[in-house]
Amino acid sequence: MNSRDFDLLHPQLNSDFLATAIYDPSAETEWNDGQGRSEARQVLAIPLGHWQGELRGRSSHRDPLDCSKDEKISLVRKVIVAFAVANVTQHVLDSRYSIEDIQRILCVDNFVVRVRADDLSDLGWEVEGVDVISPELAVQIRSSWISNCSLFDLTADDITGRNVEATITRNTKNSRPHHARRDSDEGGCDGRMVCYLLGRFFHSVFCGDDSQFRAVETHGRQKDYGICDPAISEPSYKKNYVLSTWENSVRTRYESLPKDVDEIPQTKKTSINSGQLKNDFLQSDSIQGLSFASTSRSEKSTRQIIDQSIHANSTPLCNDFCPSAISQLVTNLLDCGTDLYRSVDSYQSLEEVKNDLHILLQEPGIFLFDQYRMSNVEHRLAVNKDKLYGRAAETTLLTDAFCRVASTGVSEAVFVAGFSGCGKTCLVQSVFESVDAAGGYVVVQKFDETSTRSPLLVLLSTLNDLCGLIVEKNSPEELRELFNNIRDSTNLTLLSRVMPNISRMNSSDAALRLHAFNEEVSSGLNFHMLVFAVMRLMRIISSRSRPVMIFLDDLQWADSASLDLVHAILSDIRGSNCVFFIGSYRDQDVKQGHFVFEFIQTLSAYEVPCTELLLDGLTEDALNLMLSNALCLIPRLCKSLSSIVHHKTRGSPFFTIEFLNSLIDRGVLVYSLRARRWVWDIDQIHAEDITDNVLQIISDKMTLLDDDDQNALKLAACFGIKIDESCVLELSRTPLFNDLQSTLDKAVENGFMERERSNFRFVHDKIREAAYLLIDSKDEYHFNVGMSLYSIMADANEEHSTPTSTVLAQINHGVPSLLICKERRICIAELNYKESLKSFEGSDFTSAHRYIKAAVSLLPEDTWTSNYDRSLKYFFQFAKAAHTCGHIRAAKDSLNDIITNGRLLEETYPSYFLLTKILLLACNNLSQSFDLCRKVLGMLGEDVPTVEMATNDLISQVTKAKALLNDSELLYGKQVPTEDWKDLAVMQAYYQLITITYLSHPEVMPHYAGRWAQYMVLKNVSSRYTSKCIVTLAGILCRDMSQDARIGYKLGKQALSMLDFSFLGDAAYVFLIFYGFVGELFEPIQACLDMLRRGYEMAMQAGNLSDAAFHKIFMLSQCMKTGMNLLDLKEDIDTELSLSTHRSQTFMVMRLRCYRETILTLIGETSTGHSALFSDEDLTSKPNLIETQCLDELMCSAYLGSPEQYHCLSKLYVESPQAHRRSSIPQRSFYAAFYFGIFVASMYRKKSDAELLSKLDDSIFIVATAVEFSEWNFKNKLALLRAEFASLEGYGDEAEDQYDISIAAARSSKFIHEEGLACELAGFHCKNHGKEAKALKLFWEAERCYKSWGSNIKSNQMVCMIQS
Questions:
Q1: b (16+ CB within 10 A) / e for 221-243
Q2: Nearest to residue 292, comparing CAs of 678, 688, 689, 686?
């Protein structure tokens, strides 16, 4: 390619310039874009002087602030060339070239720039390398953009940094230096003079002229280094003239400084003094070569200052529109050429030069394109609040944790602890980009100590934001599918109330605005309903392709309810959702025993992967980098400042910025307009006596504001981290705060607050705390603010939009001491009572308790006389809220006050019922709760006998109830809801009595259930308890394995048909009794299991954890009976065991531990044995637990033989084979008889005993009774017992037939475990009768069944049997 070719291709280029361009085909290089893509490119070699001259000629601007994108790119490429030359210089220095040789090498005409030949249309062209003509050296440049995108794809404001590598690519063995280095040159002077020569070279590159600095070089330097430079040989009078001129100029301007601060027009005279003005003048007129950071001006004479100014002003780039960083770099290089004026900022080695150049290339937006204009405007620090410093390891840990969640679909939690201002939020924000790139959703919320919203509502607001994100990031088709899944799988009505953005998923109008979270819609909720609904929601909306990241800041201000909801999401069935949770908290505000630590420990106990991070202050290097970016100075120049700042702030990023701003306000840290950089006095900073508390610094800054501005900040601080627009507008209408809007705008201008949509928000919680510290009498101040808002609320002619909760949050600071007026006390008390009701219905129990406590405190001392009705309401609401929040003693005291002072039973019976519930569930006092319940029934006119008396009258009460129900129209006629309070109270009392009796005395349940049913029929009571009563009696009738069981089944079916599914809790109870006690006798057990799962979901949706727990117990029991895979069942039980432990459900925990021990035994894993699970007291006080443990031991005995550890309780059945008839659960008797029969048969084979054979016959009789009810569930069991009996009696053929029937029936009913047991026992029978082939086949079938069941121990036994 020749000059003509270039001219045709690029006619806009200078033809003289093209004549200097030399194309060498051998110079083709392979180009890499930094993303793994490469291609061969043609390279053009251009003399350095012509290359930089063309750039200067085509530049339309010289100011790096105003230049175009192309000119910024040209500047970057100049720095790349400088970086290459610095590497060449290092190379020749290491190769022992002499100073004279290096001086000749560092000449612009000795360098050639290699650029891409296909890039000539772009200003500056992409630099491929730099060549040295003599000696023959070449530097290959490889660069990649940090943002992984092309430099030309960016806008003028987005010039990105690049990583650059320079490599010497040509062999230089034949290019020897003209002069070897002399021994005397091996000292440190060589390196400094090389830096000086490099500085002159860089001046030529960036400015194109080096005549300015030649005039001030001394004759001594020429003598010392022997540099043959014509400029150094100038006459002495010329040099003296230059020095004299600069000296006189500086001295004149110094002496002309005003001697008093009033002579200088300043808006804030208190922020600077005359000495500082003089220093600032010298800083402004003294260029970067002087290191202000290392010089104490107070210790220097005026002559020394002037001498340094002379040297500094001789810096060649001071008046050019060159970036200040380049000017500083060149100055520090030139400083190396003198000892007289050398500053500590001068370079010590070429390695430092290369590092600085590389930093310029990595961050051009900070260092090359000056951030501070040369104007008289006030300069502030260029702080990038979103950038993270010194947290690379922590960022990697967070990113890796998220990647695990996204790849495995298993939720994880990370907890970030640290002091306020250490950068917790900024660290977490570093992960947002990764989540977004993975297609996930990020929601962020911050708990606030002084916020009027409860933490639970804050969390619900976060989930509402998540729904809004889903609407924004999905197509209409995807949204419809999500909406349908939510509607079909969870309580859509409930979720739509608390998360209104869900409704937008089903909207055809994509332009609808996102709905904000409304606290008012949360009324009517039940917390446990909410938890279950949210768990189901998260299963639907989160997945590996759409992971959800939830970041909750300041967990120390959360509460147990909000953390319980998070816990429910994270501890859901492993892999059912894909949630990455990050919580941050201040470690200094969280002491040992805080619920945050309990939350972390609980998650770990639930096997939720948890990672804990503790952030300390930044290291000195990291802080230096942060200051470097804030001051737009190369890190090397900030070390002296960062060292002292780190010592004073302990590395706190927020404290550091505030400290620097305070230095700026006091003129200690100033921006020099001439030097175009920040300068400081290190001695004065070192002498700063600052407090360790950043709040004091901010508070001191606030005290300089006007009173109105301070009042605005104090007012905003009362509302938390932000103040809503509605509050601002309404307070502006009051006399005290009529100028609030404008003063808050000033707070934004001063950097204390920021706009968040139409609201005002503090930029950091430490600033809010500092503003709050300005308030002297905090309670009184809050109270006055609240009463100002209340005045608008109470004025019927005024419209108001501020929530009542916000008003009360302020007023209650002064309750009751500051509220004197009796009428107003009652008004405020009523507002608190209504707000408590609303919060309680919305499951915000903490707020409900706080409001009602304030309401009660406002009642007069004679309240039961003067305010009887109000006292009843308030005290009962207080008891409910206190009980829910765990304040049991306060709740009991409040209920006892009602019972003592109440006048009528109609008014006090709800208190009796709540007290009974507290005694039963919270205090676990069965006897007291039973006695209180009997007492209430007696007060209502029901003579309920004691347990001892009821034991003697079990059958008659059930018989009477059965007869009454057969003749009653209540079951089939149209039901009219009963309104009489007494009938409703009796039905509720009997329901409580049945619940207590089941847990304490299950043997007398029939008596009380019969009385309950009789009252219902005789009084013709139709209420929500009617179906519960009928299904309870049905369960009692099924306990007797006679015709009554069929009557019970019929009644149970009728109870199901009477259900009103709008009351999910009632429906769940009916499902539990019917499908757990009754249905399994008549219907396939798998169908019952499915209905129990439905009942469990209804109980959870209704928030009834006790009913849900019982559902789960029966579900797990039926899962074991159906032969569900043992490993899956173990995982399910482990999850439930953790949940029950967390909920303190002792009875549930005991049952689950029984099931788990059985499963471990059947799998073959190490177990402690059933006998070691519970104490004798547990077994004695809980008869149902004895039945459960006995049945589990019998099951293990049936499958694994009869070791002693498997029948410590089964001996009860050996001693009394009819004991199972007394079981409270009928089907449990049938399974016990089946397992006992198999167990007895195995014992008989070891020791023939006629009594054992008789017991086996009894078991056959019992199971045969069960077959009459359900062949599906029991036919295979009866056939297997008969086969065992025939085998033991020697009837071989009959036994084989019964074995075949059992195997076929088990296979038909899908009882894989019992099919395996039948195959195993049939195989032993065949083996004992010499039928080896059939036995082997049966053992193979047994091994298959056991393996599918998950019983490794049984599978291994069959393998051993086959091999033997």
A1: beeebebeeeebeeeeeebeeeb
A2: 678
- Work out the pLDDT band at 207, boundaries 50, 70, 90: confident
pLDDT in tens, 578-629: 999 999 999 888 887 788 998 998 888 888 999 999 999 999 999 999 999 8
Cβ atoms of 213 and 314 within 8 Å: the answer is yes
Residue 865 above 90 pLDDT? yes
Q: Which residue has the tokens 């009882």?
A: 1311
Residues 1255, 1220: contact at Cβ < 8 Å?
A: no
Q: Which residues pair with 680 in a beta bridge?
A: 669
Q: What is the pLDDT of residue 444?
A: 94
Nearest to 1209 by CA among 1189, 1185, 1236: 1189
Q: What is the DSSP letter of 136?
A: T
Query: Taking 90 as the threshold, does the pLDDT of residue 1305 lie above it?
Result: yes
Query: Hey, which residues does 277 pair with through a beta bridge?
Result: none
Q: Report the percentage of the chain scoring pLDDT > 70.
A: 76
Are 575 and 547 in contact by the 8 Å Cβ rule? The answer is: no
Strands 610-615 and 412-418: parallel
Strand, coil or helix: 548: strand
The burial of 403, by beta-carbon neighbours within 10 Å (0-12 exposed, 13-18 middle, 19 or more buried), is given as: middle
d(CA 556, CA 90): 55
**Three-state SS for 412?**
strand
Query: For residues 160 and 162, what is the distance between their CA atoms, to the nearest angstrom?
Result: 7
Whether the ω angle into residue 64 lies within 30 degrees of 0, i.e. cis, is no
- Say what the pLDDT of residue 1151 is: 84
pTM: 0.70
Residues 6+ apart with CB under 8 A from 918: 883, 888, 891, 892, 895
Q: Is residue 594 classed as helix, strand or coil in its secondary structure?
A: coil
**Can you read off the two tokens belonging to residue 907?**
């008014």
What single-letter amino acid sits at 480? R
Give the residue from 108, 58, 104 showing the smallest Cα distance to 82: 108
Return the H-helix or E-strand segment holding 195: helix 189-207
- Beta pairing partners, 553: 446
Q: From CA 1355, how far away is CA 1348, in angstroms rounded?
A: 9
Q: Among residues 969, 960, 1049, 1054, which one has the least CA distance to residue 1007?
A: 960
CA 1081/CA 1073 separation, integer angstroms: 12
CA–CA separation, 315 and 308 (whole Å)? 11
Which regions of 594-642 does DSSP assign to beta strands (E)? 610-615
Token digits of residue 1350: 């998950």
Q: Contact 906/981 with Cβ under 8 angstroms?
A: yes
Sign of the dihedral defined by the CA atoms of residues 677, 682, 688, 693, in that order: positive
Q: What is the pLDDT of residue 256?
A: 43
Q: Which residue is it, tokens 């922020």?
A: 271
CB 264 within 8 A of CB 278: no
Q: Which class for 268: exposed (0-12), middle (13-18), buried (19 or more C-beta within 10 A)?
A: exposed
Torsion of CA 1192, 1193, 1199, 1203, to 10 degrees: 170
In whole numbers, what is the pLDDT of the chain averaged over residues? 79
Residue 416 and residue 411: Cα distance in Å, rounded?
17
554 neighbors 415 (Cβ within 8 angstroms) = no
- In which region does residue 554 sit, left (phi positive, over 0), alpha (psi from -120 to 50) or beta (all else)? left
Residue 856 predicted with pLDDT over 90: yes
Is pLDDT larger for residue 1029 or for residue 371?
1029
pLDDT score at 117: 65
E strands, 493-554, where? 548-553
Q: Tokens representing 334?
A: 């030139």
Burial class, 298, CB count within 10 angstroms (exposed 0-12 / middle 13-18 / buried 19+): exposed
- Supply the pLDDT for residue 457: 85
Most confident of 662-666, 758-762, 1217-1221: 758-762
